[in-house]
Amino acid sequence: MAIADGRESVTGKSLCVYSQEETPEFRRRMDAWLADITAYLRDESGANYVSLILSGGYGRGWGAFVESPEGPNPVNDLDLVLVTRTRLPREVTQRLSHGATELISPHSRFETDSLTPLDLHADVMNLTRSDLERMPPGQFSYDLLESGRVIDGESILSQPLNFPASAIDPAAALLSIGNHSSSVYESYLVGLIAPEQMRLNLFSFAAKAAGAAGSAVLLAHRRYSALPDNRLLTLESMAMSGDLDNLTASEPEFVYLVREGVMARGFCSAQRLEDAAHYYRNARRAMMAAAQYCVQRLLQTTVTSPVETAVAIAERWRSEYLETTADPLWKSVARHILEKAGLRPVRASWRVRAPVYASAVALFAALSLDNSLNPTVDDQATRAAARILRLEDPMGGFEGWKRTAEAMVVALKRQNWTR
């Protein structure tokens, strides 16, 4: 089931690939896995089935792979959107995700609602045809509609986008920063459970986070693109024209750090995995610079450190910066989820995501890793994260950081806030 749609990015790179550095063997294995997953989801959906979309990095042709004794494998997850005529219950979608995972990674230990090893898995999301037709402007919807690939069924993405990238709320920059901050050190947390995966996940998510730092800056300027190479060209153009002077004054190598992550992520070579700590440090620099810049630009506040950045996100977040439902029931459910994860309820005036994402920024700032991936923790940043999350009696040192980070990650995963 080779997939070829003939699209190209502005740099001329074909999107008829899964990864910019893929090998013929990796492509063959991916084609076979996706054929099996497609047949499974078609059979399970029956007459309700419309299409299957490959989204995320593999959909846009910028996914990552790693060599293994069995052959080249994708890294972490395959993002799939199952389009149906009527919406599926959440428990059905979860069952389909587990079933699809069994086809590509039978021994995967990944779970969607708890802190588990970040093993290879399939992430199946369900949307209806009307969902796709009415998707509001946002980073996820823009990426899906602009760079997702229909691999089976109706050509559901053949219509042009009904909104430009400039229509995306610039506050998506802050969500992206918080989301990718947590993803990086989640791989360090679970590395203690699965040490053989730690360097792989740490490198992969760090390289991805460096790229996300660039995306956040572009979102804040309403100049986002779905394709990584297009984003790099835009960033470089903005830097040369002086549009990013306030950013490069604090981090002169920002564009270089973003480029390094974007270009390295496609192939998780042995040397890159050995240098995981280097990529972590550079991703941390890029993300902290982007966080401070975006907070200053979007919230009209002056912050001088990652800790102040995190507090500013939590304290200054307003409805005009983030479009979410104002339904009181949604807020009460979200607060309940936070309590189940060991967190106190957030103030009703806050958007429920804000404190969790803000704590992610503070926790990323708190954790430094040496070349052997041994941790050094900044207690001030850890306490700031614990305070934002309303954790009682925060511990110091690595154990305090780990406890706070675990609570934050579980809260995100249980509410599926990373989408």
How does this model look, in words?
- By secondary structure, the protein is α+β, with helices and mostly antiparallel strands.
- It has two domains: 131 residues, Beta Polymerase, domain 2, CATH 3.30.460; 244 residues, no CATH class.
- It contains 17 helices and eight strands.
- It has a four-stranded mixed beta sheet. A two-stranded antiparallel ribbon has the order 2-3. Strands 7-8 form a two-stranded antiparallel sheet.
- It starts with 23 loop residues before the first helix and ends with a helix.
- The relative contact order is 0.10.
- Mind summarizing the main beta sheet? 4 strands, mixed
What is the helix/strand order?
Answer: HEHEEEHEHHEHHHHHHHHHHEEHH
Number of H/I helices: 17
Strand content: 5-15%
Q: In terms of per-residue confidence, which ranges show pLDDT below 50 for 5 or more consecutive residues?
A: 1-15, 318-351
Shape: globular
Question: For the residues shown, what is the average pLDDT?
Answer: 83
Structural class: alpha+beta
When the domains are counted, the total is 2
Count of DSSP strands:
8
Radius of gyration over C-alpha positions, nearest whole angstrom: 20 Å
Strand order of the largest sheet: 5-4-1-6
- What level of helicity do the residues show? 40-55%
User: In whole angstroms, how far apart are the ends?
Assistant: 28 Å
